[in-house]
UniProtKB/TrEMBL annotation:
The gene is mtnA. Pathway: Amino-acid biosynthesis; L-methionine biosynthesis via salvage pathway; L-methionine from S-methyl-5-thio-alpha-D-ribose 1-phosphate: step 1/6. Belongs to the EIF-2B alpha/beta/delta subunits family. MtnA subfamily. Substrate binds at R65, G66, A67, R105, Q216, N267, K268. Its EC number is 5.3.1.23. It catalyses: 5-(methylsulfanyl)-alpha-D-ribose 1-phosphate = 5-(methylsulfanyl)-D-ribulose 1-phosphate. This is Methylthioribose-1-phosphate isomerase. The lineage of its organism: Bacteria, Pseudomonadati, Pseudomonadota, Gammaproteobacteria, Pseudomonadales. The active site is at D257 (proton donor).
Length: 365
């Protein structure tokens, strides 16, 4: 395991608090550019999209992924649909694009939240020119609000961890999947909290689960953290228990794809087992997500649609077999952590401690 004392330069605060070096998506007015996350860290390749169908396919194929980044990309997809629409049926055309985008992935509610916002704007427009302008404005607003939410959540989280006073000792944390600039409008949710800890010299070490099978932890989180000089040690998912058993880690910090009215949290597969481990080892378990991830229409996590992806993701890697050909695979890519295993849900609107129905209703109505 790395000893952070041996690498003091890793504690230099990031010069730009939004980690301007790492972005997942760029809006260029007439087109959306996405950094192809399937190819990281080997290649930094940008894909240019000019249609909503292209954006929907890119979300489905995980060129772009992470709940907030999916929502932002979909919003830009609607803006692209309005640019392409023409004739008397322009509004129906844009609505069709919204339906196509909504079918791209099922679990992250940010996708449906962003599309609902775009649809409301669309329905308030009478002319196509007006719709083009207002839909682009709304997508940019969704993007900018997400970055602002991430910065606010980092403040709330440090306060809730009791680390905002200035005389605290650095802590080690463990995270799962990728919740950084690549998964959001910038900075990150759980990884935003980790960035803020680092900026304030309150971070000793980040343990990053590699996150089988898609390897968001090793391919994306480790890449982001190494780029920004944040001390990270990569571990196989199965090593998390052994790491917690050392007593070094004080918090497990993760993101979310959907949080229901009782405080249950859907997040990347493997999150639930981390929450069980955290409780056993008396380690804090924190979920960091913008309010666009909260779905008060669902009573509990049992109602969340959980995406299952192709068994190939488990059976092989870049075409190399990891398992006998054709072996049946169970590949749910999210799981649900029950609220009673969560200590803190941090959003830009505030923090819910020991989440349950009343705490969630107190903050989200
Ligand atoms: C800020 S990202 C939060 C979640 O979306 C993240 O933890 C996650 O589960 C991402 O899953 P992915 O399948 O990579 O889209």
């Amino acid at each position: 395991m790395n000893n952070p004392k041996e690498s003091p330069s890793l504690h230099t605060p990031c010069s730009d608090p939004r980690s301007a070096g790492t972005v997942a998506l760029r809006w260029q007015g007439a087109r959306l550019e996405l950094l192809d996350q399937r190819l990281l860290p080997a290649q930094e390749h940008w894909i240019t999209l000019e249609t909503a169908a292209g954006v929907a396919q890119s979300i489905h194929d995980m060129v772009v992924r992470g709940a907030p980044a999916i929502g932002i990309s979909a919003a830009y997809g609607v803006a692209l649909a309005a640019r392409k629409a023409e004739g008397d049926d322009w509004q129906a055309e844009v609505k069709m694009a919204i339906r196509e985008l909504a079918a791209s992935r099922p679990t992250a509610v940010n996708l449906f939240w962003a599309l609902q916002r775009m649809e409301r704007v669309l329905e308030g427009c009478v002319a196509l020119d007006e719709a083009r302008q207002r839909l682009e404005g709304e997508a940019v607003a969704i993007h900018e609000e997400d970055l602002a939410a991430n910065l606010a959540m980092a403040d709330h989280a440090l306060e809730a961890m009791g680390l905002s006073s200035g005389n605290s000792s650095p802590v080690s944390v463990l995270t799962h999947c990728n919740t950084g600039a690549l998964a959001t409008g910038g900075y990150g949710t759980a990884l935003g909290v980790i960035r803020r800890l680092h900026e304030k010299q309150l971070l000793k070490q980040v343990y990053a689960d590699e996150t089988r099978p898609w390897l968001q932890g090793s391919r994306l989180t480790a890449w982001e953290l190494v780029r920004d000089g944040i001390p990270v040690t990569l571990n196989a998912d199965g090593a998390a228990a052994a790491i917690l058993a050392t007593g070094e880690v004080r918090w497990i910090i993760v993101g979310a794809d959907r949080i229901t009215a009782n405080g249950d949290v859907a997040n990347k597969i493997g999150t639930y087992s981390l929450a069980v481990l955290a409780r056993h080892h008396k380690v804090g378990f924190m979920v960091v997500a913008p309010s666009s991830t909260v779905d008060m229409a669902l009573k509990s996590g049992a109602e969340i649609p959980i995406e299952e992806r192709d068994g190939k993701e488990v059976r092989e890697i870049r075409g190399i077999a990891l398992a006998p050909e054709g072996v049946p695979v169970f590949n749910p890519v999210f799981d649900v952590t029950p609220a009673n295993l969560i200590d803190l849900i941090v959003t830009e609107k505030g923090v819910v401690q020991n989440p349950g129905t009343s705490g969630m209703h107190g903050l989200f109505g």
